[in-house]
Structure formats: C-alpha cells, structure tokens
Design brief:
The protein is an alpha/beta fold. It has 17 helices and 13 strands. A hairpin with a 2-residue loop joins β2 and β3. α4 packs across α7 and α12 packs across α13.
Length: 514
C-alpha cells in the first residue's frame, strides 16, 4: 500500500514497515517456503509501486497474479485483518490496477518476442545448452553474419547461417579459425529442438520495445505488465534466458538517471533460482554487474525464490530490501540454509532471528529495509498487509479479453518476417541453382555442337575420300592402260592393271595427307 509517500509492506506491533521510494531501486528479495505468503507480498509491493506511479513487470509463474486487474473481494477474514492493522483509517480500499498481459506464446496475452541478434551468442549458448567449443563457434557464426551484413532475426535465419558456414567452413577457417562441420551440425540440432519448444514464436518480429513497459494510466498509476509464465516455466532454460535477456536489454537501453525520488520501473522475477541453475561464471559475473549498475538507471529488481541460497552471493549482497517468509528445517542442509538466512539480517535484540524464521505463520515475515540514509534497518517481525486487488487468478477468457483491449495488442499481434539471412540464402541458392542449370545447359549445348561438328566433318571426309578415290582410280587406270598398250599382249595388259592400281593407291594416299 502506498501511504505517506512510502511503500508500506507490513505492520510490526503497530509500527509501519516501509520502503522509501528512493531506496526501492536498491533491489530486493522475497523468499520463503511454499505456501508462506510470497505471492501476497509480491502483490502488495506491486500495487504500492503502481500507486506511486511506477510501472511494474511481474513474471506470473502460477497464474495467480492476473487478479490485479480486478478489485479485491471482501470477506470476514479480510475485514478482521483490515481492522487489526488500522487500514480503514489509512484509505485502504479494494481497487483494480491498470494491467497489460503478455505471453511469449501469444495464448494468454500480447505476444512477446525478441530477435536472435538481440539475444546474442552468450545467452543463446546457455539457452541451447552448448559446450564451450560450440559456444565459441556460435560466436564466430554471429561475427560472420555481422561482417557480411546478414540479419539474424528468427530461428530460420540462424539455421541458414549455420548450414552455410558448415558447408563453407574451409573458406572461413583462415580468417576466423577452425570451424568443424560436426560442431555446426550439433548446434543446428539444438536450434531445431528449441523451435519445438516455442523458440520459433519467441524469436521473431516485431520485437519488444522495452519502452512500451514504461507507461502510466490517465490517473498516473503505473501500469502492471504481467507475463503469463505457466507454460514458459515448463522450459526452465527459455524462462531463465528470457529474464537474463531482459536484464541485459534494460541495462543497454536505458540512460543514466542517477538517484531519483522513485524508480522508473520495478521488475519482479519469480522462481529466480531458474536464472542461476547451471549458470556459467562469466554469465553470473555479467548479471552481478548489471544488478550493481542498473540502479543508476532507475530500475529496481526483486527476486522471488524459496531460499536465499538460490541466489549467488555476489548478487544477494546487492539486494538491500529483504522480506523473508518462513523457512522449514527438515534436514541438516535445511538447517544450514536457515542459519545462513538469519545471519544475513541486522540483529534485533528483541528476538532470536533464526528461531523466528522457522516459527513464522502464513502472511508473516522478517523484514529489513534500507533507511533513507541507505543503511539496512534492524530486522523486524511483521504481518504483511492484504492486497487491494483480487486475490487469485481470473478466468483465461477474461485475461484474453484484457489483452485484446490493450493499445499495444495491435502493435505486436501479427508476426512479421522481413528480409534477413534466411531470405538471402534462399535467393543465393536460387541464383546458384539457376547458374548451375545454365552451365549444364551450356555444357550440353556445347557437347551437342561438338557431336554435330564431328558428324559434319566425318561426312566431309567421306565425300572427299570418295571423290579422291574416284579420281585416283581413274588416273591410275589410265596410266596403267597406257603402259599396257605400250608393252602389248596379255602380259602388257596384266602389267598395266597392276601398275594402275598401285599408282591409284599412291596418288590417293598422297592426296589425303593434305
């Protein structure tokens, strides 16, 4: 609840526990075992930021955050809680919040997309679960695409690029290093598997413009952007890659604003452990750097998870506002986790933090927030305020209707497929096929021409031979007859015939040499 220009979270023995808006971009953590009230806490914070005019992004894993677009419903238990916490005197009222619904698959909200190029080779390698060698080759493939001015927008583009580089790997090896066809083939198989999991819908245009999330309604309330992650959460890698991409996109896109009176936007990442499962050290360092620096761009990030140990220490140390719901200690490792969580708070001499952590009821939490001077306050045991919007989900049909009436729906509704690497290689293949067909036709025509020329030459040679044979025979016979007549008698006639034939053959052989 936004009250007295503060983000009011809970009540501790009549004392209001609040986050100062100018400290809200120091990030935060909401942790606790299943069923301890994390979702209610998240809703209370999101509503408060919305009332303060701060846009919010929520990753809705279970589908129960959609009720923010409807006013809360009254009940006897709610009335008791309102009375006990003195909320009637503070202007508490059931109300709805301006909400925009998104869905990567476009089923329960506005389609949310990005491009292969915007995701980049580092995050894409994580998403595809590539080994180090394959990751390096994917980076080279991106470099080749950049050097040749080829756009990588969707998975078709990436597959075409991989196929081309694999087929021409020897041509690229001198400039870019060894690229094995086996590695490009392995990456290609991973891309095909990604398509089957919805990657062909996520990587497309029009790509999300983050600026569309920085909006308020006519009353100045910050819009609540809710991403339906019920289906997306089944693919933990795609979910984590999306969240990591979003952090990178925010960091690279937003200008510096310094220390403002309130955040420009606040992001809530549920099931945050998925972001860090199996994450490489290099990527973890990048996320840590973003979390450290993005506050100067006016963005607050709140991680929601079951146990604080799910968050790497370097990132956990950057989360100044902590709301810890109950933890259960059933095993030695659970006991260790409880001890670690308790030790992260500034000690309150009024109670044993570790003991209280395991005894908290639903809707209760240990809270430590940053003071106006940036110093963490001592931990306090609090009851969390009730939300003002509807608890729980709304029917899917109503959610779809809410998405349809958004002005952003028509901007992102239709998928576009502009000219990019895939189309370039399709044209190149067509041109190569046409050139090959033309070369085959020319070769066939040349072959036919050679056959025809040979045939004509044989005919000419045959005609010449017949003519020469006739001429030589005539000359030989005439000379033989003349000689036979001079000799006379039968001997002369026989001699003349033999000499005539021999002269004819000699004349023909000499003639055909020319």
């Amino acid at each position: 609840m936004f009250y007295d220009h503060k983000i009011w979270i809970g009540d501790s023995n009549g004392e209001r526990v609040c986050i100062h808006p100018k400290m809200a971009n120091r990030h935060g953590l909401i942790a606790g075992a299943t069923g301890t009230g994390k979702t209610v806490t998240l809703k209370v914070l999101a509503e408060s930021f919305g009332d303060a005019g701060v846009p919010v992004f929520l990753a809705d894993i279970k589908g129960d955050l959609a009720g923010m677009c409807r006013p809360g419903s009254d009940s006897e238990s709610m009335q008791k809680r309102i009375r006990d916490m003195g909320l009637n005197d503070c202007g508490f009222s059931y109300q709805s919040y301006p909400s925009v619904f998104w869905d990567i698959y476009g089923k329960m909200g506005i389609p949310l997309r990005t491009t292969i190029s915007e995701m980049g080779p580092v995050l894409l390698s994580r998403l595809l679960e590539l080994n180090q060698t394959q990751s390096d080759i994917l980076t080279i493939v991106f470099k080749i695409a950049d050097d040749n001015g080829l756009l990588l927008i969707d998975t078709k583009d990436l597959k075409s690029m991989l196929q081309y580089v694999g087929e021409h790997n020897k041509e690229f090896s001198e400039e870019y290093g060894n690229i094995s066809k086996q590695s490009t083939g392995a990456i290609l198989r991973h891309v095909v598997a990604l398509e089957a999991q919805g990657g062909d819908q996520f990587f497309a245009e029009p790509a999300l413009n983050i600026a569309d999330w920085f909006s308020t309604d006519l009353d100045g309330k910050g819009c609540i952007n809710i991403l339906d992650c019920r289906e997306l959460a089944n693919n933990g890698l795609l979910y984590s890659a999306f969240l990591l991409w979003m952090l990178s996109e925010l960091f690279e896109t937003l200008p510096e604003v310094g220390d403002a009176d309130k955040p420009r936007m606040v992001f809530f990442f549920d099931e945050a452990h998925l972001m860090f499962d199996g994450i490489s050290k290099a990527l973890e360092d990048k996320v840590e750097q973003i979390v450290k620096l993005i506050r100067s761009k006016g963005v607050g990030i709140y991680f929601i998870t079951q146990n604080p140990t799910d968050i790497p220490d370097g990132i956990l140390s950057q989360l100044g506002n902590k709301i810890q719901h109950a933890l259960r200690a059933y095993t030695p490792s659970d006991e260790k986790a409880v001890k670690a969580a308790a030790s992260s708070f500034r000690v309150n001499p009024a109670f044993d933090t570790k003991k209280e952590l395991t005894a908290l009821g639903t809707g209760e939490a240990l809270i430590s927030v940053l003071g106006e001077d940036g110093i963490p306050g001592i931990v306090q045991k609090c009851r969390i305020l009730p939300p003002q919007s509807l608890m729980g989900p709304i029917p899917d049909g109503e959610k779809k209707q809410e998405a349809l009436v958004s002005k952003l729906y028509w901007k992102y509704e239709k998928m576009e497929d502009r000219d990019s690497a895939y189309e370039f290689f399709q044209r190149k293949k067509m041109q190569d096929d046409e050139a090959a067909a033309k070369a085959r036709q020319e070769a066939e025509a040349a072959k036919e021409a050679r056959k025809e020329a040979s045939k004509r030459q044989k005919a000419v040679n045959s005609s010449v031979r017949r003519a020469a044979n006739t001429a030589a025979g005539t000359i030989g016979r005439e000379l033989g007859n003349s000689l036979g007549k001079q000799v006379g008698g039968s001997f002369g006639k026989k001699l003349g015939g033999n000499v005539g034939a021999s002269l004819g053959r000699s004349i023909l052989g000499t003639f055909l040499k020319f």
